[in-house]
């Protein structure tokens, strides 16, 4: 090992856990999405725009030897099975021990992973890594903007860096920043000191876009902090609201060069500003009926209604019928809905294209929020559910696979796309690959808040955010939280403004 050419281990466990979702995340879910080992990590990421790509680039640029060990990720969904977490963590720790010693460690994680009996997976993993490498080896932790940052994550790491954009277009830049700070620490050029402030606010999902208020103003303040002498890095985390854990909520984190008081005071000033803007962090979503009526009134359309409560990218199942039921009840015509329902697809396959079907669709994966809806219709199309989109969609995904898929036109003039699996609604090719023209439908619906916009808003004239019930509901106060911190805006209102001295390091 040499300080000039430091040798760094690269690993991580990546999950955004919706603890209200009934569908848990087992080892098979990680195996399906990707458990990458060794060079396969670089094969998948070196040319991408991920945190890991940023690590790789910094390593090349700075002459560090980066050794990829294990990286496991799964799509957002319910609680991680304890045995899955323990098996993955054990493999990571085994590799870390076997291939050491190390000059440093780089962790690429999301920061909102929850396992059964282990509410802070990210903090737990950082602690286990720290126990192997000892107190003198710097650990860099790069997190998603939706991280629920815990004191354990920050105490166990040397440098924590969080994305600054939503939609997330800077993961590689933050990975690079994190890796560079670790290399400089190994070389003795900097001495990072971190200060974390957990702000007693949960920002509504409809206020997360960083180009819009209040995040835009908060990030401008963050830029001012970053420009101060002695500051190495600074971050604001929006948090992930559907993890029922004590660290759920917003936070800010400042890394100074050897000056704990500077880090604390900068983090404290950011935290107070976040608190002062809490009035701009409440929901912009409308009641579902209102959103549908407003969209239908924009005829000839198409307009977009965003189904916040069944946000596939946020871990929801994708079969909610709340909007379909409302459209039928309100007598609105020409609504397009995509639902996960493999049994309904099979019924359509049996009827064949042009055949007539009578079905109860969707509404089965979480009976707390909706029920199947009876429809009668004609099968318009059948497909294997695979489609490709080479345009820059949210998250950059190109190849999609929703499993066997059908489209039906109902007798009350709605179009229902039935899929076998939930896929991020980030591409209009999902509709076009079935021969549907999204431009022709008065009201399009999509199961997400931010992820559908880049694609759908190419053809829609207006968007309406529907505050539908579900495990990703905008109205957090309706969900059965047990473990979140208290007091926390907007659950508790009227408690005192940010008190002095709340800063934690
Ligand atoms: Zn995120």
Structure notes:
The chain is of the alpha/beta class and 505 residues long. It is built from 14 helices and 19 strands. The chain has helices at residues 27-33, 40-45, 51-62, 82-99, 121-133, 151-156, 171-186, 215-226, 260-276, 288-296, 322-330, 342-351, 429-432, 453-456; strands spanning 7-14, 35-37, 65-73, 104-108, 139-143, 159-162, 192-198, 231-237, 251-257, 303-307, 335-340, 356-361, 373-383, 386-388, 399-401, 405-410, 415-419, 443-446, 462-466. The strands form four sheets. Strands 12-13-16-17-11-18-10-19 form an eight-stranded mixed beta sheet, with helices on one face. The chain has a six-stranded mixed beta sheet with strand order 2-3-1-4-5-6, sandwiched between helices. A three-stranded antiparallel beta sheet has the order 7-9-8, with helices on both faces. β16 and β17 (415-419) form a beta hairpin. The longest helix is centred in the first third of the chain and has 18 residues, at 82-99. The structure holds zinc ion (ZN). Zinc ion binds at residues 144-146, 168. Residues 144-146, 168 line the site of zinc ion (ZN).
Give a short summary of the structure.
The chain is of the alpha/beta class and 505 residues long. Helices cover 28% and strands 22% of the residues. It contains 14 helices and 19 strands.
